[in-house]
TrEMBL record:
Species in which this protein is naturally found: Algoriphagus hitonicola
Keyword Transmembrane helix: yes
Transmembrane segments: 20-46, 275-301, 328-353, 373-393
Chain ranges of the MacB-like periplasmic core domain: 25-248
Name listed for the protein in its UniProt record: Lipoprotein-releasing system permease protein
GO cellular component: plasma membrane protein complex
Length: 408
């Protein structure tokens, strides 16, 4: 057995549990355990929130979205759309026209976003998460229907069972004559039949209604223009590979975004918060490790005679330093191991039993989501190792400077 480890382990397992140094060492170990457990739990919660956000977006947004690099809309034709459909890995291509419009139901009015989609919109596993009420249909050309967000439906007091009351949609348009006094010349209007409600997230629920592409095309007078194209990737293909093929096919005039890129700002914010929380808790863990510094410093003072004997027997300074570094490592690693296990068990309990509620009504989860990632455990362990080395280095130097002659 390694001599320095053997001596460090004997100090660590010392039966003199009542002395102050042993108590301080125990406090150090507990402090490291609590800090490590907190890091595991917080990092796992942020991972869970990030996955929750992705799940919410995946229920409403496409796997890949094609937009114009410059401008709000772009012109399409069947030949060009056919070329995109032929790209390897493209399973479903949905045409989209999206714009703001005034909604009216029984005199209740609000400004919302109307999203006109082609008939294959619901073939992209839309609303696979969250809640959905009503018929999964967008009606016919003669009787177009709409799927409303729950917040929109609530604000307008829409009743799906009342078939005789339509949803009126108004869209501003340029007047044919600058001198016109007829208000009807300032907007286009049409009616939709409310067919269903969806609830995914408040961001979408309070703003969107889904309508047929032809209806939106005529109301907004878009003609052959589209605001975006949405792509569902075939099951046997990776989204990143198909994204690169589409970028190559479409060139620099178009942007091809995956779900993360469509909401890059929000996800970047979550990642930054996770990083800053990790740094903050690591700093707190570093403060807690001062106990390791003090306990090892006092141990070095108490064991001066033992150190002097070892040096008299020929032990080099390197061995003395190694003893105290390993003593600090034993304290920190014991606490870290306990903290990692406790953090894992708490996260596992939260996953299975939902111990802590979000405190808000959610269509997807009721409790704080957690997701444990192996690399988080590695980074936390490395942080503990670094902090331990910093906390143990100075006491190890003090121990190595013991004067053999004076102590003996």
């Amino acid at each position: 057995m390694n001599l320095s480890y053997f001596i460090a382990a004997r100090y660590f397992r010392s039966k003199k549990k009542r002395n102050f140094i042993a108590v301080l060492s125990t406090i150090s170990m507990v402090g490291v355990a609590v800090g490590t457990m907190a890091l595991v739990i917080v990092m796992s919660v942020f991972n869970g929130l990030e996955d929750l956000i992705r799940g919410i977006f995946a229920s409403f947004d496409a796997e890949l979205k094609i937009e114009a690099a410059v401008g709000k809309s772009f012109v399409v034709d069947e030949e060009w759309l056919g070329n995109i459909r032929q790209v390897e890995g493209v399973a479903v291509l949905t045409e989209v026209i999206e714009d703001h419009a005034l909604l009216d139901y029984r005199g209740n009015q609000m400004v919302g976003t109307i999203k006109g989609v082609s008939d294959n919109f619901l073939d992209q596993d839309r609303f696979s998460k969250g809640y959905f009420w009503g018929d999964t249909t967008l009606g016919t050309d003669k009787r177009p229907a709409a799927i409303l967000g729950r917040g929109v439906a609530f604000f307008l007091s829409v009743n799906l069972d009342d078939f005789n009351v339509p949803l009126k949609v108004f869209y501003p348009m340029a007047p044919r004559s600058a001198a016109t006094l007829d208000p009807s010349q300032l907007y286009a209007s049409a009616i939709l039949e409310p067919a269903a409600f969806f609830s995914v997230d408040r961001q979408f629920d309070d703003e969107y209604i889904i309508a047929p592409l032809r209806f939106t095309q005529e109301l907004l007078n878009y003609g052959d223009k589209r605001t975006s194209l949405e792509v569902k990737v075939a099951d046997d293909y990776r989204i990143g590979e198909v994204q690169e093929r589409l970028k190559k096919e479409l060139g620099e005039e178009f942007l091809v975004k995956n779900t993360d890129e469509q909401h890059a700002g929000l996800l970047r914010t979550v990642k930054l918060e996770k990083l800053f929380v990790f740094l903050t808790l690591t700093f707190i863990l570093a403060i807690a490790s001062f106990n390791i510094f003090f306990s090892l410093s006092m141990l070095a003072i108490e064991k001066r005679k033992d150190i002097a004997i070892l040096k008299a027997m020929g032990a080099p300074n390197r061995l003395i330093r190694s003893i105290f570094l390993k003593q600090g490592a034993l304290i920190a690693f014991s606490g870290a191991l306990i903290g990692l296990v406790l953090g894992y068990l708490v996260c596992l309990a939260q996953q299975n039993f939902g111990l802590v509620s979000l405190g808000i009504s959610s269509a997807l989860v009721d409790a704080y989501p957690v997701k444990m990632i192996f690399w988080d455990f590695i980074w936390i362990s490395l942080a503990v190792v670094g902090i331990t080395l910093l906390a143990s280095w100075r006491p190890a130097l003090i121990a190595a400077r013991v004067d053999t002659v004076k102590e003996l």
